[in-house]
Structure formats: C-alpha cells, structure tokens
Write a structure and sequence with these properties.
Layout: E1 3-11, E2 14-23, E3 28-34, H1 40-53, E4 57-67, E5 74-76, H2 78-94, E6 113-115, H3 119-193, H4 202-216, H5 219-237, H6 245-265, H7 269-289
Parallel strand pairs: 3-4
Antiparallel strand pairs: 1-2, 2-4, 5-6
Helix pairs in contact: 1-3, 3-4, 3-5, 3-7, 5-6, 6-7
Length: 293
C-alpha cells in the first residue's frame, strides 16, 4: 500500500525534517538518505524502527538536518593562513603591486578553517530526537495506509461476493450439463446409426451419461472454492495480530486452482463463461493482496 508521512522538530539549535514515502512492493525494501553522513549504527536503528511499522513495500526515508553553527565548531589554522599571506605579499611586491590589506580573501582557501564537530558523534547525539521525528512521520504514513486499506478491503469483499455468486450459478447449471450431454449423445447415435438405432438400448446411453457425469462432477470444487472465499472474508473481518497478507495470497492461489479444475471438467459454454469471470475476479484479488501486509 502507498502512503506519505512528514514531521518536523526544532530542538537544541537543530532543525529536523523527515519525509517518508511508501509504494507497493511484495517485499520490504528500505532506502535512507540524509544530508549528513549517517553512521551504520544509526541507519540500523532507523531501519529497525521502520520495520516495526511496515512489512511490505518500497520505503524511502529522507532526512534533513539543519544545525546552527557555534563558535567552538571551527578552528582557524593561523600558521597556514600566515603562510598564504606571506606568499601572496611576496608575489605582490615582486610584481610591483600593493599587497592585500586584509585576510578575508584567504579564509576560503583549503586548510584555513577546520570543522571540529565529528559528524558521527553529532548524529549519535541527536539520534533519539531524530528517531522521535521519524516515528511521527511513520504514524502519519500509517494513517494514510490504513485509509487505503479500508477501501481495498471493501473492494476485495465485493469481489469475493461476486465469486460466490458465480459459484452458485455454476452449481445450478451443473446438473443440466449431464442431461444435455445425454440428449446430444442420443441424437448423435440416432443420426449415425439411422434405422439401426432401434437396437441401441436406453441403458447404454444412461451408462455413458453416468460415466460423463462422474468425470464432469465439480461439486467438490464448488465446496472448496466457497470455503476459500469464506475464509478470505473471515480474514478481512478479523485479520488477527499477524499480518494477513500471506494468508490472503495463499487463499487466492487455492481459489484459482479450484476454478481451473472446474473449467477443465465442465464441458459447458455457460459454465465456461462463469469460470472466465471468476478467474478475472480472482486475478483482481491477487493483485490487491500482493500489496497487503
């Protein structure tokens, strides 16, 4: 399921901003990017926090940290600064030019200003606050995913009811298949044998029709299909503590298998039409279930 969450925090001269996006994926893939270097330990803690909320999907976590600089964060290397100045002064005098009167232009040169703050130590210091902001963004994201989940559940519920209704149509049609086969067989034999058809005993036709009925019997498949549909609906109503995605995915596979068997057994155009529509409905379920945790 998809979702977006954003959170901000101002604390101890540091501004935190977190954006989290989640899109559909059968598996869980987490990517984290930050405008500061994150130690591996910090990335692991962030990833573990995300896993507590999300079990499926491609999740992108964007972190933006803005720390107000303090005087003690930087040091000027006076020896390097004087070295630059003396070289420029000597070059200016040799060229007959006026030496520079200030040091401001030299401050941007390499090696003059050193940053004393260790980025890893800084991130470790602010990590508790950072995790708090990430959790707030994840709560927002989850709220959006829950709303989407309710809409998907309603759609899946309607799809299951349609499959159940089609199975009832198949059940009502199934007894007619054997009778239609018996009539077609009788007409075919009469046409082929002509006058000799009188020697054909009715019990021979009935025996052949009985064998066909045994081969074409789909009552067990209908019962199992309805059982899978009812279990699917039960999981939607009461998913339990464990994520229901895998269970729902298994049930759609079993539905598809039973419907395939019906189509292979039933030699009837009307049942074949119902089978095709049931397959379409199950395929819709399968696509939605792949994005359910």
């Amino acid at each position: 399921m998809t979702g977006f969450g954003e959170a901000r925090l101002e604390k101890d001269e540091t501004s935190f901003r977190v954006e989290i996006r989640a899109v559909n994926n059968r598996f869980l893939k987490i990517s984290i990017r930050c405008n500061e270097d994150l130690p591996a330990a910090a990335e692991n803690e962030i990833e573990n926090l995300v896993r507590k909320y999300i079990r499926r999907g491609t999740v992108q976590v964007a972190l933006f940290l803005d720390r107000q600089p303090r005087p003690g964060d930087y040091r000027i290397n006076t020896q390097v600064l004087l070295g630059y100045y003396r070289q420029v002064e000597a070059a200016a005098l040799d060229a007959g030019l006026t030496p520079p009167s200030g040091i401001e232009p030299f401050l941007v040169l390499p090696g003059i200003v050193s940053e004393l703050v260790d980025p890893s130590a800084y991130v470790a210091e602010i990590l508790p606050s950072l995790l708090t902001v990430i959790a707030q963004a994840l709560e927002q994201l989850q709220a959006m995913r829950i709303r989407e989940g309710h809409a998907m559940a309603a759609d899946m519920r309607a799809t299951c009811l349609r499959i159940y209704s089609l199975s009832e149509e198949v059940e009502q049609r199934a007894p007619m298949v054997v009778e239609n086969y018996r009539q077609r067989l009788q007409e075919r034999m009469t046409r082929l044998l002509g006058e000799a058809a009188e020697v054909l005993k009715p019990e021979d036709i009935l025996k052949e029709a009985g064998l066909f009925a045994e081969r074409a019997d789909i009552s067990e498949e209908i019962v199992r299909l309805r059982s899978h549909v009812q279990q699917f609906l039960s999981v939607l109503e009461s998913p339990g503590e464990e994520p229901p995605g895998r269970r729902l995915e298994f049930l759609t596979q079993e539905m598809f298998r039973e419907i395939n068997t019906m189509g292979a057994k039933a030699n009837d155009a009307e049942i074949s039409r119902c089978v095709v529509e049931m397959k379409t409905q199950v395929e819709r379920l399968r696509e939605m279930v792949q994005n359910v945790e």
